[in-house]
Fold these 2 entries.
Entry 1:
Amino acid sequence: MPPLRSNNVLALACVLAIGVGSELAPDAARAGQRATTPKPDELLKRFPIGTTPVTPIPIAPTAPEQPPVVTEPPAAVIQRSSDSTADFVVTPLVNPNTREFIASRSDFSRSFLLARIVIPLLLVLLIERELLIAGGRMGARAFLAYGLPLMAISALLAYARIRTYVD
Amino acid sequence: MTVSIEPAIEAPSVKRPSRAVRLTIVIYLAALVGAQASEAFFSTELSVACYSALLIALLNHFAFAPASAELRAALAGVALVPLLRIAALGLPQQFVPSVYWEALPAALVLATVFALRRIVEPGGIGLPVRASSQRGWGAKPQVALLLLSPPFALASAFALSGLDLANAQPGRPATTAAVLVVAAFSGMTLEVVFRGVIQPALVALCGWQGVALTSLLYAGLFIGSASWFVVLLAATTGVVWGSFSALTHKVSGVAASHALFAMTWAALF
């Protein structure tokens, strides 16, 4: 069995790093952010879509009236209010189920859910590609052709999770 | 333009694929339609898992199992459908403007088609690639198909609203140029995938029944629209575009027609 090529090992390492990073980095960031900024999921639970989340502030009798502190609404609320084409769009790729799936969860939780399926799928394709090359069989490049979109999806999912803490 | 896949180096098979081989691809197609239905009737998470399992099964069958060249080409082409659905469910994010949600998966799958085309050489495994001596229909039928697309899209859109099949009325003026461009792009991409890659492989495997099978697979994409009128419309347009591309041995005409059709719908809704 010929040795694995260095660029393939590097690709596998990158995929593993994306997967591990998307799991570990948010956990590390979550510990530092929990005291200051609630997660989008918590916001959605506390303030359902359509309501204005208001943090009550005790007002002293002599102090001037202060405006209530309005927490920034979750992304799903912003998306729905600005999306003028969400009522009925006949598109085969992004159908109403897909829109509901996107609106029902934050990018953070949805990317976690999808990464659990997409990253193992990508790993299987890359490992099988190595097996095909090692076995001298044809079709290895087809596995790479199908793996490249999955790499892009994995990278976007990892970015969606990391972005939650960068913002 | 005709896109074809040649996944193998074996000599072109001369005998007709057996019934068992055709049954194999029909089972895969039924499983794909079932996965698309599970997205509409059960849950999106389940459908993503089904698409992943089907993608692995199709590619493993393509690469490891002893199969005819026609079957392998069909397997590699049909595997684009679960990839398309996984990309369509994984790529849209709330921080990405919803206008581009459809363009991202289409672009990735188009890149995969391009990569597959680079892997293989057309014409080596008996796919219906247009031979040099074979004359097409010329430009007139393609122009006619192109001109018929917007009126047909208008008629179907108003039929949809007139039959109260959807909670929407055509004629909303909020369409931007980006929506039209994305609609045209995704329509053309679907034609390249279905009529350029999948249909030639299925026609080589099953004869003219391949056109119907491709149209059924294409209509399955619309199950999530929650309107049987739209699914029937997609099956009808799929048969029309599929027959046209099979007769003309070209995808460019139906791709342009689909782009106009999708732009008309996007402008109306």
Note: Residues 6-268 of chain B form one domain.
Entry 2:
Amino acid sequence: MQAREFKALPDQPAPLSTTGPIAWVKDNLFSSVFNIAVTVIITSALISILPGVLDWLIFSANWSGTSQADCVKDGACWVFIQAWSQQIFYGSYPDGEIWRVNLSLMLLAGVIALSFTLPARLRNKIAVPAYLLLPFVCLLFLDGSNIGLTPVSTDLWGGFSLNVLIAAASIIIAFPFGFLWALGRQSDMPFARSVSVTCIEFFRGTPILALFFMGSVMLPLFFPSDVTVDKLLRVWIILVLFMSSYMAEVFRSGFQAIPQGQYEAANSIGLGYWQKTLLIIFPQVIKIAMPNILATFVMVFKNTVFLLVIAVPEMLQVIMSALSNSNWLGGHAVEGYLFVGFIFWICCFSMSLLATSIEKKLDTSHQN
Amino acid sequence: MSVDKQSIECTNDKEIIVIKDMNKWYGNFHVLKDINLTVKKGERIVVCGPSGSGKSTMIRCINRLEEFQRGSLVVNDVEMIEDVKNIEAIRREVGMVFQHFNLFPHLTILENLTLGPIWVQKRPKEEAEAIAMKYLERVQIPDQALKYPGQLSGGQQQRVAIARSLCMSPQIMLFDEPTSALDPEMIKEVLDVMVELADEGMTMICVTHEMGFAKKVADRVIFMDAGEIVEENEPNEFFNNPQMDRTQLFLSQILEH
């Protein structure tokens, strides 16, 4: 018997009522009585609050001037931020040398941009060493004594640039450390495993404030009196260790998500331990762990404000000393803290966007 | 201990895999019991048996994805001992294809194939890519070279996995239920590649339930149950005249439908 030809039906567009902006509004804002009520309440709350807030923040705010006396209008006194802006961003770093801080920040931005724009082939060969060198290059420039520039003592480093640079330097060094600890933790070698577990559990189980105090107050007691380790260096080491322990656990969760078959396939084509780890496992771990890696970055970045408890003049510390300055005793705390919060939010939000784009880049499952 | 190479003449009768009294336990569970098996160069062997009979475990012992606790194993004149050099020497000679393909999802098809030649055999990239394309053409998907595994169908992925193993020019190919995870329509394209490979004289050990494949290409069929080799025969005899009642029961179960 002659078989009849099978013809697949053509695709038809989805009904209009299920796509487009009107459908979105209906689905998300007015889908049920409860949803309608919530939408109405939130909208009316916004309408009643927003004008006052915007007025204080922007329209009635004092934007220009040099001293407290210029803040005559009812709104926020942004003059306060303006007057202290150099301190807020650069601490007490000498005026003429601020280009060195800017250069360091630009190098950081440059390396990040580099890792996004380089083709995949060159990324590992150029961007990875660039990242690892970055903290030390910045250190050379900021300190200056080893490359013939005016030495600037670390006591003078400060402000938001310090928050950014010390967080970046910690993240960069903690990344390989954390990976090694995670490898150690699941290693068959008892020594590697016990060292890794001890380090991870100690630094993860201790509050960062306690670690900072320990580093700044207790650690020097153990050194001979003629040996002094710079306070900022100690803080850096503590941040690196603290963050490494978190990264190690983030990586471990990534390791556990890799199917056993990947290890077996790598073994069966004869790859050695490090080839297998770096070529097969590491790239997949990074992809799986990306959201948690970002969360850890953000956490450490925000934790840098805790440096104020050991009197490192980071951004929040600068704001607090500005608030107690005798020329500015007008109560500008709200403006100051809002500003700190806003700057941190901008940075963390950009990191979040960055991470999303990295995730997209790494996602090879549905790429066409 | 160094890699132990004897000077045996390379004839078709060369014994390429020799398993003697192999025993393996998972904790207290005895998975492999006194396995004895000799495979000659160029031989095609199909291993079948119910699940949990130890057939996958046995072939995974051959390239040391699993360890065994007692007995001995010699692959291509290299004894499998607790020595990284020996293990790597054996793995270089043995290709393996898995049930779930196990392609590397973060690498393109071409990168999946060139990984071994570049990093294990230390070949230059161009040469590795030429080899990779040669084998991709053999499994008839050269046009997929730049895609990622996630974009390919199961049958295509399994053919890539076969090509990936072949790129290492192995002496022996192990297949661990290569078609079990595939849609019925894709089984054939994978089996075709395997038949072609068998026709070229590749030494193969294949764990599979594809009895048509066994009849067509196998030199010997091995039936395993409860960690033992129950019966071992050439396919005609095996299917038409099984000696053991356990084999008869198994065959009646799988051939019924």
Note: Residues 273-303 of chain A form the longest helix (31 residues).
